[in-house]
């Protein structure tokens, strides 16, 4: 519960170290990624250091080759993790694993065409345009999101 409150109030950095360590241990000891454990990682990933994030994401990408083969709820959580990672990668370009970045974009783009996947697919395009230096196309997506009431997330 502490991680949810901190994520909502943007105070992840204020979580006591012993609580962070407890959360990290819970994530690292997870062998079976349930919806709950994926949700916990999606919310808490920013308390991990870059090496940990990279290795956990690499494990996800290796274990989930076809995002469409997992349950719809797991797809939603995995998509959130991938989008969070891509956002993280923009701010940490020198220390993320580029292959993770490109695989993340690929997994999101491979989602079935379905209204529930629209946001993830749009964000995959956005990050690909940013990485390719296509300012006009990435700005078009930002403008679209703002025009549709999503200025808080851009």
Describe the structure.
With about 150 residues, the protein is an all-alpha fold. It contains 8 helices and no strands. Helix 7 packs antiparallel against helix 8. The longest helix has 20 residues. The protein is globular. The model has no long low-confidence stretch (mean pLDDT about 90).
Low-confidence stretches: none
Largest sheet: none
Structural class by SSE content? mainly alpha
Tell me the helix content: 55-70%
Q: Termini separation (Å)?
A: 26 Å
**Proportion of β residues?**
under 5%
Overall radius of gyration: 16 Å
Based on Cα principal axes, name the global outline: globular
Q: Mean pLDDT score, rounded?
A: 89
For the secondary structure, the number of strands is 0
Short summary:
It is built from eight helices and no strands.
Features of the shown structure:
8 helices; mainly alpha; globular; 154 residues
Write the layout of secondary structure elements.
Layout: H1 2-8, H2 17-28, H3 35-44, H4 50-63, H5 72-91, H6 98-109, H7 118-132, H8 135-147
Helix pairs in contact: 3-5, 4-6, 5-6, 5-7, 6-7, 7-8
């Amino acid at each position: 519960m502490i991680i949810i409150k901190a994520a909502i109030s943007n105070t992840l950095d204020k979580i006591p170290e012993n609580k962070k360590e407890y959360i990290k241990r819970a994530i690292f000891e997870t062998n079976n990624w349930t919806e709950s454990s994926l949700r916990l990682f999606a919310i808490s990933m920013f308390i991990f250091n870059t090496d940990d994030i990279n290795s956990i994401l690499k494990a996800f990408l290796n274990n989930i080759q076809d995002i469409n083969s997992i349950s719809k709820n797991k797809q939603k959580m995995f998509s959130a993790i991938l989008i969070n990672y891509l956002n993280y990668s923009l701010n940490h370009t020198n220390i993320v694993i580029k292959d993770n970045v490109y695989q993340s974009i690929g997994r999101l783009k491979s989602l079935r065409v379905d209204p529930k996947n629209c946001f993830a697919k749009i964000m995959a395009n956005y990050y690909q345009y940013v990485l390719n230096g296509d300012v006009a196309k990435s700005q078009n997506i930002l403008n679209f999101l703002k025009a549709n009431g999503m200025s808080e997330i851009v």
